[in-house]
C-alpha cells in the first residue's frame, strides 16, 4: 500500500464556505471505497483518472448531503483533491441551496464552475501547498453575496451543538413540522436526519483516533441508547457493521493519515 494524504486549511475568508482541503495519492488493491455521510458537501477534482460512481464517472464533481454511503469503485490508483464544503458554501460558490444536490452527485461543470481550467491548473501545480493556494484563488473568485434564513441557519448550528430538534423548534418559535420542511428545503435532509449524521460523524472520529475505544464506549459517548442501537445506525448509514468497515477500510484511511501524511495550515 502506497498512500499520500495531505490536509490543508483554506484561506480564512473562505472558511465559512469550505472547512478543509485534502490531497491524496493512493495505490492500493482494486476495490470499493465508501464515501461516508457527513455534514459537508464534497467537491473533488481528480489529477489522474476519474471518480467512478453508480451514476457516472467524473473527473470533477460535487456531491450533496446524503444519509447513506456513496460507493466508489477504483482500480487501485486514486489521485486528486477533495474540498469539504459547508452548506453555505454551495450558495456562496454556486448560487444554489445545498438541498438541490441532496443525495446526488453532479459534474462540477454543471454548476457553471471553471471545472476544466481548475483541473488543468491543479495538475500542473508542483506541490500540495501550491494546489491549495490555487483552490483559494479559484474559489475566492466564485464567492458571491449569500442570504440564508436566520432560523434555518440557527437550527443547523444548534444541531451541531447537540440540541434536540424539539428544543430547536421551540427556540425559533416554529412547529417541528414547519422547521423540518424549511430545513429540508435548504439542506435536503430533515433536522432529525442531519442530527443522526452528525452523531455518526462523532462516532467515526472516535474510531479513527490513536486509541480506538470499544464499541460500547463509542455508543455511550455519542448518545446511542446501547451498542445494538449503534450497530443498527452504523449499518444503515454505512452499509456495513462497524467491524466490517474497520476491517475493510480503516487501515486504508489510517494509512492516509499516518506516517505518509501531513497537515498544512496556511
From TrEMBL:
Sorted UniProt keywords: DNA-binding, Transcription, Transcription regulation
A GO MF term: sequence-specific DNA binding
Cleavable signal peptide: none
A Pfam family assignment: HTH_18
Domain HTH araC/xylS-type as annotated: residue spans: 149-248
UniProt keyword Transcription, yes or no: yes
Keyword Transcription regulation: yes
PROSITE patterns tied to this protein: HTH_ARAC_FAMILY_2
Protein's UniProt name: AraC-type DNA-binding protein
Source species: Lentzea albida
Amino acid at each position: 500500500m502506497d498512500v499520500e494524504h495531505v490536509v490543508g486549511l483554506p484561506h480564512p475568508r473562505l472558511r465559512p464556505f469550505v472547512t478543509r482541503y485534502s490531497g491524496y495519492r493512493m495505490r492500493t488493491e482494486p476495490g470499493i471505497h465508501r464515501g461516508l455521510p457527513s455534514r459537508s458537501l464534497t467537491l473533488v477534482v481528480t489529477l489522474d483518472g476519474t471518480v467512478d460512481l453508480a451514476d457516472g464517472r467524473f473527473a470533477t464533481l460535487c456531491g450533496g448531503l446524503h444519509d447513506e454511503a456513496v460507493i466508489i469503485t477504483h482500480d487501485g490508483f486514486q489521485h486528486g483533491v477533495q474540498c469539504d464544503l459547508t452548506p453555505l458554501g454551495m450558495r456562496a460558490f454556486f448560487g444554489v441551496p445545498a438541498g438541490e444536490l441532496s443525495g446526488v452527485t453532479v459534474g462540477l461543470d454543471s454548476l457553471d464552475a471553471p471545472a476544466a481550467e481548475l483541473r488543468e491548473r491543479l495538475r500542473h501545480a508542483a506541490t500540495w501547498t501550491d494546489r491549495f493556494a490555487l483552490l483559494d484563488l479559484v474559489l475566492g473568485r466564485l464567492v458571491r453575496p449569500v442570504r440564508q434564513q436566520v432560523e434555518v441557519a440557527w437550527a443547523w448550528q444548534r444541531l451541531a451543538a447537540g440540541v434536540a430538534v424539539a428544543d430547536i423548534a421551540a427556540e425559533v418559535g416554529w412547529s417541528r413540522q414547519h422547521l423540518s420542511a424549511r430545513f429540508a428545503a435548504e439542506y435536503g435532509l430533515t433536522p432529525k436526519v442531519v442530527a443522526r449524521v452528525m452523531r455518526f460523524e462523532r462516532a467515526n472520529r472516535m474510531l479513527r483516533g490513536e486509541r480506538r475505544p470499544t464499541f460500547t464506549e463509542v455508543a455511550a459517548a455519542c448518545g446511542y441508547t446501547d451498542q445494538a442501537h449503534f450497530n443498527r445506525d452504523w449499518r444503515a448509514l454505512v452499509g456495513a457493521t462497524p467491524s466490517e468497515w474497520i476491517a475493510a477500510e480503516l487501515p486504508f484511511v489510517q494509512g492516509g493519515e499516518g506516517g505518509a501524511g501531513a497537515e498544512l495550515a496556511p
